[in-house]
Amino acid sequence: MSPAHIFTLQLVLGYVAWLLCFRAYLWPRLRSMPRADAHRAIATLHSFRFFGLAFVVPGVVGPQLPGSFAAFAAYGDLATGALALLALLAWRMRPLFWSAVAAFNIVGAADLLTDYFHAIRAGLPERAGELGATYAIPVIYVPLLMITHVAAFYMLVRSGTTRGIASDATRSPVARHGVDAARIGG
To answer: What does the pLDDT look like over 17-38, one tens digit per residue?
Structure first.
């Protein structure tokens, strides 16, 4: 099997594995949380996207890694991670929090789609070995990032009181503060 086929197979399997995991474990948990808390959890995951700067570090990636891919991937990830960090820092300032949530999801999803475009255009699957130590990013981390962007967009456009997505306003004060009524006898 060629390196391009192996890389593509691993990317597809990364999506399959994360979709199964997301559907079974993550999505039910996110849906049971207040929307702001669910977006905060997603922002926490995306706040680590500064790691994408590794795409432009010589020695971490091969010298033949296409620059058209590496630069866009690195700096798009950095921008997304910074916006996710802003969302986390703005947690108590809800208008700024929601603006940062929307921004990091728009920038992040656009970054990943643009990265796919640049990767295909530059023939990255055929040169997957040039990813070096960053090889795991597109086949393991990126599928989870894209899935969580889709989930975030879904939650952003859905009303907080429909189909089980809890909102701060619809939960009791006890539930909003993380106290389980069953544990306190209620």
So the answer is: 999 999 999 999 999 999 999 9
Q: Which two tokens stand for residue 83?
A: 């916006």
State both tokens at 127: 């040169």
Cβ neighbors of 88 (< 8 A, separation 6 or more) are 40, 43, 44, 47
Chain centroid offset of residue 162 CA? 24
pLDDT in tens, 71-93: 999 999 999 999 999 999 999 99
Strand partners, 58: 61
State the residue for tokens 């796919």: 116
Tokens of residue 27, six digits: 């999505």
Q: DSSP code of 162?
A: S
